Amino acid sequence: MAGRYVEVRRVRSSLTAAFAKSNPPLIWRFDLERHRDFALALRQDAAGVWELTMDLPYSEPRVIASFAAREDAEDALDAIGDVLSRNIPGRIVGFFKWVGVAVVALIIVEMALPPLIRMFNPPTVASAGRNFVPPPVRSAPPAVENGEPVSPNEAPPAPQP
């Protein structure tokens, strides 16, 4: 912004400017996506009125706003120039946002896939390799003589081969 009588904003690919001191006061909107090549200039007409003009390739200059004083016209041109010269890398930022989303998605898949595979495909000796620990093998219960019940603490040891 270059003064309280000129307000310029850029929203995505649109440029909007409000000229309070132009004759008549007006709000101007310009599509930067459609018109990539243009020039802004100040010109004085035969009556001494200062005009902010826009030159497009292959067309005549268009008057955007007229000002009684040169200072007001310069303020308008400076305000538009300041907003246009700011670095707003919309496409680059959008590209990096998509790359970030893709990287996060790959990390989530990388973390979630192995547990899902294990859940539906239990490990075997061939698939587990060296880290495979087989489940413990249960031995047969000790022999009971004469059909008498025996507590686990009193059971005789299993014969050694």
Molecular structure report:
This protein has 2 domains: 6-85, no CATH class; 90-124. The chain is of the alpha+beta class and 161 residues long. Helices cover 32% and strands 22% of the residues. The protein has helices at 70-85, 90-120, 125-128; strands at 6-11, 14-19, 26-31, 39-44, 50-55, 62-67. It has 3 helices and 6 strands. The model has no long low-confidence stretch (mean pLDDT 77). The strands form 2 sheets. It has a 3-stranded antiparallel beta sheet, with helices on one face. It has a 3-stranded antiparallel beta sheet with strand order 4-5-6. It is rod-shaped.
Put the structure in a nutshell:
This protein has 161 residues and is an alpha+beta fold.
Keywords:
single chain; about 160 residues; alpha+beta; 2 domains; three-stranded antiparallel beta sheet; rod-shaped
Biggest beta-sheet profile: 3 strands, antiparallel
Amino- and carboxy-terminal Cα gap = 96 Å
The helix-strand sequence is EEEEEEHHH
Q: Can you count the helices?
A: 3
| Computed Rg | 40 Å
Helix/strand class: alpha+beta
User: What number of domains?
Assistant: 2
**Stretches where pLDDT falls below 50 for ≥5 residues?**
none
Counting DSSP E segments of at least 2 residues, the number of strands comes to: 6
Chain-averaged pLDDT: 77
Strand content: 15-25%
Strand order of the largest sheet: 1-2-3
Helix content: 25-40%
Judging from the principal axes of the Cα atoms, what is the shape?
rod-shaped
